[in-house]
Amino acid sequence: MEKDISQAVIRRMPRYYRYLGDLLDAGVERISSNDLSKKMHVTASQIRQDLNNFGGFGQQGYGYNVKYLYDEIGKILGLTETHNMIVVGVGNLGQAVTNYVKFDKLGFKIIGLFDSNPEKEGQDVRGMKIMMMEDLPKFVKENKVDIAALTLPRAYAEKTARDLVNLGITSIWNFAHVDLDDIDGIVVENVHLSDSLMRLSYNALNNKNI
Q1: Which CATH number is 123's domain given?
Q2: What is the distance between the alpha carbons of residues 64 and 37, in angstroms, rounded to a whole number?
Q3: Is 168 a member of any domain?
Q4: Collapsing DSSP states into helix, strand and coil, what is residue 81?
Q5: Which residues fall within 8 angstroms of residue 152, CB to CB, at 6 or more apart?
Q6: Claim to verify: residue 37 and residue 90 sit in the same structural domain
Q7: At 173, phi and psi to the nearest 5?
């Protein structure tokens, strides 16, 4: 994509996709930016500005065709393709990620599980056997891996990320409690569950919505 899109816009696109999916399930065929703004608590102007980054998709006096816009945002987010994913670190969080079946519906297919604890070798999680870290290079060589989910302790995150880059994996979904923004050659999404919980705590104390 030639145009640089701000990360703030990118962060809102999955919300649009989710809300439009709900509208489809409810049988809604078209919706105005004003009505969509009320549902999403985002201004109609913001919605139009966001979507205009990708072509607009609306018609004056008609609004948005829900199915068409849902499909187009899916294409923008890459959800029309299958993304093969591995999970590195198969503790409680790693198993929870593996067992989240909605990933498949969005095109994210978990194809391998890896851990460094020899006691976990061969254990079954959702029909897959846990492999050891030393098996990873051979696995990556023999399989197309698009994304690695890191669900391991922070002490091992950076080295593991660098090892993954050396193996040719350049997209990392990082749940380790450390940011991995300074590693060359990767696209990383840092997920800090505690940050979300602390925002909830603040807003609960102040009786505000996020």
Answers
A1: 3.40.50.720
A2: 12
A3: yes
A4: coil
A5: 88, 89, 91, 94, 160, 176
A6: no
A7: -100, 105
- Calculate the dihedral angle through the C-alpha atoms of 91, 93, 96, 100, rounding to the nearest 10 degrees: -130
- pLDDT at position 1: 43
- Helix, strand or coil, per DSSP, at residue 167: coil
| Residue ranges, the chain, pLDDT below 50 | 1-2, 210
Identify whether 21 is part of a domain. yes
Which of 76, 98, 131 is where one domain is finished? 76
131/35 same-domain check: no
Q: Give the three-class secondary structure for 6.
A: coil
What is the number of helices (H) and of strands (E) in the chain? 9, 9
Same domain, 95 and 189: yes
Annotate 37-70 with DSSP letters as a single string. HHHHTS-HHHHHHHHHTTT---BTTTBEEHHHHH
**Per-residue pLDDT tens for 162-206?**
999 999 999 999 999 899 988 888 899 999 988 988 988 988 888
51 assigned to some structural domain: yes
Cα–Cα distance for residue pair 42/64, rounded to 1 Å: 16
Global confidence as pTM: 0.85
Which structural domain, as residue segments, surrounds residue 22? Answer: 7-76
